[in-house]
Design a protein that fits this description.
Elements lengths: L21 H4 L16 H8 L32 H11 L1 H21 L6 H10 L2 H14 L8 H17 L17
Helix pairs in contact: 3-4, 4-5, 4-6, 5-7, 6-7
């Protein structure tokens, strides 16, 4: 969006983990306010109207009406943990949270390089975004001890990684399937 830039592009205004987004991983989006490729965003317009705040939670009006039903639906990447992540940033501080986010990004890259069958990118991105870092570390340690990643790729390797992540998600009652936004008038 013209005229909108931010110093911080790994964590969006509204609480998205841009560094875990598959569009960001693919180099198609630099993150919120990151320059070329950045899409128009109503929340970015709101930031400009409120003096160019870097994060919504810095606004005196946070949480505003924009945050009603905020975490109900998923779209391109998993969105339903934004409030949790904002609270975590506020507790840990941005620098400490960014360190966790970078470790998660490294885990996601590892999953995509060594375990992706070409059809599991969204599943892995969703799992890494939603699962606690400690659990992701545990899954990766387990996978590394069971799988020789220097061997030729196999569907079994993908299945093993997906099952390990799914088991961890079930332990926390986390659904790794994206929920689609209801169309108006669909009644579903």
């Amino acid at each position: 969006m013209k005229g909108f830039t931010r110093k911080e592009t790994s964590f969006s205004l509204c609480g998205l983990n841009c560094r875990l987004c598959i569009m960001n991983l693919g180099g198609y989006c630099p993150g919120c306010g990151g320059g070329a490729g950045n899409q128009s965003c109503a929340i970015a317009k709101c930031s400009i109207a409120h003096g160019g705040i870097q994060f919504c939670w810095e606004c005196a009006e946070y949480p505003c009406l924009r945050y009603e039903n905020f975490d109900e639906w998923d779209s391109f990447i998993s969105h339903h943990c934004r409030k949790r992540d904002i609270a975590r940033v506020q507790t840990l501080g941005l620098v400490a949270y960014q360190l966790d986010l970078e470790e998660k990004r490294t885990i996601l890259e590892e999953l995509l390089i060594h375990y992706n069958d070409g059809r599991s990118k969204t599943f892995f991105a969703t799992a890494v975004c939603l699962l606690p870092l400690e659990d992701l570390r545990s899954v990766m340690e387990s996978l590394c001890s069971q799988v020789d990643t220097s061997e030729q790729f196999s569907k079994e390797r993908t299945q093993m990684a997906m099952e390990s992540l799914q088991t961890m998600a079930e332990k926390h009652h986390i659904c790794l399937k994206l929920k689609k936004v209801r169309k108006q008038g669909s009644g579903r």
